[in-house]
Amino acid sequence: MQGNAQQQAYDRGITIFSPDGRLYQVEYAREAVKRGTASVGVRTEDGVVLAADTRVRSPLLERESVEKLHKIDDHIGIASAGHVADARQLIDFARRQAQVNQLRYGEPIGVESLTKGITDQIQQYTQTGGARPFGVALIVGGIENGEPRLFETDPSGTPYEWQALAVGGNREDLISFFEEEYRDDLDLDGGIDLALRGLDTVSDEGIDPEGVALGTIDVETEQYRRHETEEIEQYVEEIDTGGDEE
Questions:
Q1: Is residue 234 a part of any domain in this protein?
Q2: 27: how many CB neighbours lie within 10 A of its CB?
Q3: Which of 102, 128, 198, 216 has its CA 20 to 30 A from that of 145?
Q4: Taking 60 as the threshold, does the pLDDT of residue 6 lie above it?
């Protein structure tokens, strides 16, 4: 009982470390991220792929209202998993940072600089009394100096750079899949195929084109593009056909 009482004391304050060096509220925020549906990102030679599971729980819910992919600037997109309202706050912050950089310096913001600006904002909420951590993880993808970049933000405020990653539900299974299937020489279509196959492997009912959001930023144009459902259907058909041939 005494041990539980001590843990509850550390639970109440985000600014208080437990004796073993843990911030319980940050760990709970990570658990909140896991409760969200998955989002994935893949970096290829030709650009970056962002995809998200946007299945709705009721046929009465408008699919367009489920926002998990976000355009930040012409050359940067973000996928989110976790608390939608928390994600919206960070998305708005990221867009302001991109606009300020363009106005102040006359050039697009770097993907790494933006990611670290976001994680600095997140980190402040891990050591501020009366606040709580953001219960969301973001995948930040874009083109910087002609090179594709792909980052993750964690509720602790730590940025990580990846070749392929997943956040949200089934994260471990998806990362294991990417570790087995990812290749350095993937082109953009190959990255889309890998991202969608990953989401398909963790879906009990199989992937539904209407329940997936897909965005890409290619090196040639350096423009974020959101793919329509009809395009996603074609990619899913190719996945199904490939599976039948094997």
A1: no
A2: 14
A3: 198
A4: no
